[in-house]
């Protein structure tokens, strides 16, 4: 076996390109760190350069951080990193992305450029669809954090297979298969049921139901990140009807 040495290169961190053209006379008013005030000052500063204002948006870390915080505000329990490099990797880990998009993010060696790409992906992808037939399964506003690690967590079943789950409060176009079970539940106090896509019957995740009435949430879904893919929201409702021969005896079974 040949041993190799791996060197992790440092992240490229570019400074504010408008720092050198800032008007000193406006510095007393720059203390108001709001998104609106920052945008106004950047418009004034960019007027001193040959480039338009929108060219410098990619370097506006405060704007991108605010957009990411607004996106994760309702479904993340932990605090969001404040430093650009940590925030860019944290966002990449908590967004539901296609393998191609995730690889593109990790190939970038500039934290600000990575954040810019993530903000763009946040604006584009708003629904989770079945990877087999593209049927809509869940919406972005239904994602929430069931774990303190974020909206995504890894779980291993008895067979040693690892599932990367994204938890959502509500789904559509799914069919439950088999009876609910409490054996080896990843979430103590919850019983799990297998969830299949209603159109192609592919396995997309599980539904978890609380065993006690006082437990909150009383019900949620865990979707496999490998079995759902983020897509832009359709402009019209899907017209594909579910198959007529759905199994009614719960014969399809895929345990945790």
TrEMBL record:
Instruction: Identify the keywords attached in UniProt to this record, alphabetized.
Output: Membrane, Metal-binding, Transmembrane, Transmembrane helix, Zinc
The record's region (Disordered) falls at 234-256
Stretches with biased composition (Pro residues): 234-245
Report whether Transmembrane helix shows up as a keyword of the record: yes
Residues crossing the lipid bilayer are 186-206
GO MF terms on file?
metal ion binding
Record-annotated CULT domain positions: 125-232
Do you know which InterPro entries this protein is assigned to?
Answer: CULT (IPR034750), Yippee/Mis18/Cereblon (IPR004910)
Carries keyword Ligase? Answer: no
Q: What is this protein called?
A: CULT domain-containing protein
Organism, as annotated:
Pieris macdunnoughi
